[in-house]
Amino acid sequence: MKKKIYLMRPFVGKEELEAVRKVFESKYLTEGPVTKEFEEKFAEYVGAKYGVAVTSCAIGMELGLQVLGVGSGDEVIVPDFTHPATGDCVCQVGAEPILVDVDLESYNTTVAGIENAITDKTKCIIPVPWGGNPLDPTIYKLGEEYNIPILEDTACSVGAKIGDKKVGSFAGMSVFSFHPRKVMTTGEGGMLTTDNSEFAEKARSLKTFGVENGRFMYHGTNYKMSNIVAAIGLEQLKKLDKILGDRIEMARIYTELLKGINYIRPPIVKPNIRHTFQSYCIYIEKEGWRDKLRQDLLKKGIETQIGTYALHLEPSYVDVKRNSDLKNSEMLFKNLLTLPLHHELSYEDQEYVVESISSLIRDYGGIK
Ligand SMILES: Cc1ncc(COP(=O)(O)O)c(C=O)c1O
Predict the structure, then answer these.
(1) pLDDT tens track for 85-134
(2) Catalytic status, residue 239
(3) Among protein residues, the one whose CA lies closest to atom 16 of ligand 1
(4) What is the per-residue burial (b if ≥16 Cβ within 10 Å, else e) of 282-293?
(5) What is the largest CA-CA distance in the chain?
(6) What are the sequence ranges of the domains in the chain?
């Protein structure tokens, strides 16, 4: 029988089920004390003062922009190489995303790329430590220098570190995702972290119908996280160091096994940072081969994924402003391949993935 290698498997089990069972027994199903505990423990984990649990990262970013008062007539700098959610939240609040290119090594926005896009209308920067690879920390200084708030899209970066500090504690606000393809999951869900008590209170109020001290102060909405979902999050937090440790070790093994295969560029990891490898991506140096590889690997039972999107190539972004030709983003969109990485993957599975890639490259004529 053909082997099936999944791209991702959430690391959930009886602990999460038991925690959900306890919430069921308590009959307190909506947002409540379990959510509060999750918010506090998550914020503590990333080294931020406050956590505000929401229904997704996309919504957390939209709330973050509302907290900053970003709206019509404002510009927000967004990398082109990212999930559409990063730019969509800007459109949702009526502001204009300005797309900037990324670096071919880190896949992240650069200081120069952002600096070139700053205008009098820039009201926020949303950088993305994509795939779990932390940003160049100078980007945070840029926010101070130009007095522009940074709302970091940390969807992929739970547990990522720069030096000893975790991502989620650097920017004015950071927003994480708990989608099942992320490092830890609650099915769907997100968390906004910040050190700013006013930001936290405003975000909390916005997600709870605009309520403040028992009065409805403005028109909010409902993006609360239930105790049921938060109970899963609390159990996932306990497993997080194991999940991250395993991912980092598996990434090391891939990079080792991939050595010497022509036309393949494994990820480059800078010293003094912790990459979460939410996405372990290899760059395929021959145009057209990435998609061929995806199809042929699937025939061998191996699920893969593209890296992510070049927003300017998506129909909903054709008219969106950009400050360069966005060539790097386009190259990454076309040539990056995400390999399977999860706790159910054995060393033999990784060997099978790499051997399959190697033999396919050879079949395509990839002998230099
Ligand atoms: C970089 C990035 N930002 C935001 C999101 C959206 O996260 P969510 O599904 O929690 O809204 C994703 C999801 O894949 C993502 O990769």
Answers:
(1) 999 999 999 999 999 999 999 999 999 999 999 999 999 999 999 999 99
(2) no
(3) 83
(4) bbbebeebbeeb
(5) 70
(6) 14-235, 240-363
Instruction: Classify residue 219 by burial, with Cβ atoms within 10 Å: 0-12, 13-18, 19+.
Output: exposed
* Structural contact between residues 188 and 178, judged by C-beta atoms closer than 8 angstroms: yes
Q: 132-161 b/e with 16+ CB inside 10 Å = b?
A: bbbbbeebbebbeeeebbbbbbbbbbbbbb
| Yes or no: domain 14-235 corresponds to CATH 3.40.640.10 | yes
Distance, CA 27 to ligand 1 centroid (Å)?
Answer: 31
155 C-alpha to ligand 1 centroid (Å): 5
The pTM assigned to this predicted structure is: 0.97
The token pair at 234 is 């609390």
Please tell me if the CB atom of residue 293 comes closer than 6 angstroms to any atom of ligand 1.
no
- For ligand 1, the distance from its centroid to the CA atom of residue 26, given in whole angstroms, is 32
In order of 25, 115, 241, 278, 355, the CA distances from 146 in angstroms are: 52, 9, 36, 31, 49
Q: Of 1.10.150.130, 3.90.1150.10, 3.90.1170.30, 3.30.990.10, which CATH number belongs to 240-363?
A: 3.90.1150.10
Task: Summarize pLDDT for 215-271 with one digit per residue, the tens.
Answer: 999 898 999 999 999 999 999 999 999 999 999 999 999 999 999 999 999 999 999
User: 344: which DSSP letter?
Assistant: T
Which residue among the candidates 161, 182, 202, 207 is catalytic per the annotation?
A: 182
Nearest CA to ligand 1 atom 14: 83
The two beta strands, 336-339 and 305-306, are: antiparallel
How far is Cα 243 from Cα 303, in angstroms, rounded to an integer? 20
Q: Is the CB of 302 inside a 6 Å radius of any atom of ligand 1?
A: no
| Pair type for strands 96-100 and 75-79 | parallel
> Atom 7 of ligand 1 has which residue's CA nearest to it?
57
